[in-house]
Amino acid sequence: MNRNAVKAFSAVVLAAAFAFTPFLRAEPRTIEVHAKRYAFVPDQLTLKKGEPVTLVMYSDDVAHSLKIDGLGVNIKAMGSEKAEQTITPGQTGDFTGKCGVFCGSGHGKMLLTVHVVDK
Fold it and tell me: 26-117: which CATH architecture?
């Protein structure tokens, strides 16, 4: 192969590689949430519409869960264990997460707000 052919072939290969780069998926961002009587820490999250994120929940005491209607989140972690779920928010807005496992008298106050914004 002559030098010009090698250069042309290399240019085509590089162009093809760069053309497909936007389609490669990056690893989802990871957000840790700690659940304890009677709070989620942090108690507010901001996510981007269409961007995958892995929620990792740790239970710091007894069994807890995190349910977020509208985002399809339902994570349950038993005492001192972790659980995770990857989601890709499909709509913008504010969503309320609640503990779905009764954990005592303050259970109803255990809330987490998720703000989903445009990219």
Answer: Sandwich (2.60)
